[in-house]
Amino acid sequence: MDQQRNIIVTGAKPSGQLHLGNYVGMAAQAIDLQEMDADRFVFVADYHQLAEPFDPASFRQVTLGIATDLLAMGIDPERTTLFIQSDVPEHTELAWIFTTLTPVSFLERMTQYKDKALVQHQNVNAGLLQYPVLQAADILLYRATQVPVGQDQVQHVELTRDIAGFFNNKFGETFVQPKALLTKVPKVQSLADPLKKMSKSLGEKSYIAVFDEPEVIADKLKRAVTTPEGITNLLSLLEIFGSGTIDAERYANNNVALKDDAAQAIAHFFAPAREKRRQLQVNAAYVHDVLAEGAKKARAIAQATMEEVRTKIGIR
Ligand code: ADP
Ligand code: TRP
Known about the structure:
Blueprint: E1 7-12, H1 20-32, E2 39-44, H2 46-49, H3 56-73, E3 81-84, H4 90-99, H5 104-108, H6 111-119, H7 126-140, E4 146-148, H8 154-171, E5 179-181, H9 214-222, H10 228-241, H11 248-251, H12 255-269, H13 271-281, H14 284-313
Parallel strand pairs: 1-2, 2-3, 4-5
Helix pairs in contact: 3-13, 4-7, 4-14, 7-8, 9-12, 10-12
Bound molecules: adenosine-5'-diphosphate and tryptophan (TRP).
The site of tryptophan (TRP) has 14 residues, from strand 1 and helix 7.
């Protein structure tokens, strides 16, 4: 096994539109890492979404929409294998094997599980508990060394390391233990409730979608809460999406200027991506081809890993 090669794996659920938190925490890293010598895999985690609310009638469209958005933002299919999780059935096969190695108590400790079980208390399905086991399979199937994610996913990457260890102990050295990669701002806060992370599940007012039109961005920022935490969050958005240096004087007691400047910076930053998305949206055949090619490449690797796994555990 070549321990030196960098292998990057990350994913996003098809739960709606990608927002600035997804961009800053995950997508921007995945895009920047395209400059590094590495193998890269980015996928839309549709099987993960099944544990949470979704609409079967629009599910496929939402899934394809996330893939389109990732391409528009700068995921380059020449350098990154982009695919849809359910196109590679080895993910669920490996997840089952990992399920039999993972103590239930480890899963019950996961913060995301506890949070989601409260939010969707009428639907605490076993998939919600198993969620990080499938995530471990996503990551280890490609023998990832680095996993670019936001702060909220660090615990799942730690668990992935544990699961790799359980497997290696029982069946012999097979999986490398991957590391989570974080950015300078691993947690963008909600606009409406700056003590919580920006998230689709907290409603429209909480987030700015990457592809919101400039008027919508300005409008959402006008309503943003300006507690001290809120202001810190807005300043960090301005720093990320603006020209870099911030004139602190200009914003002392001037939240209107801060919100205006942040709105302009964000709208301007994503203007080329909005344009690219318009082009991709009328070229569904291209997106389809990229995903078919991505699934083929991913599957070849996933199948090779599964051959080794089946042999090690004595199924073959
Ligand atoms: P959401 O939490 O909005 O449903 P996902 O679960 O699909 O989004 O997250 C996809 C990626 O974006 C993950 O790597 C996650 O850590 C990252 N991410 C999500 N929200 C934020 C945030 N507010 N700040 C930084 N990163 C985030
Ligand atoms: N669980 C991640 C989230 O909620 C999405 C995800 C699924 C993922 N599989 C992954 C992220 C593998 C990184 C690697 O955001």
